[in-house]
Amino acid sequence: MAELALDIGDILQLQFLGEDSETRYYVKVVGYLEDRSLLVTTPQSHGKLM
Question: Which domain holds residue 8?
Fold first, then answer.
């Protein structure tokens, strides 16, 4: 994560692949394991969890 300079609480945009590949969802960084994984909040669409 050092390359991305991410901190807990930072806001990211997720963009899924597939039919709806133009839509972006805002999530917050909850945590990460260096060079292994990234944990973010669940994206929402129209106020509902996806």
Answer: 1-44
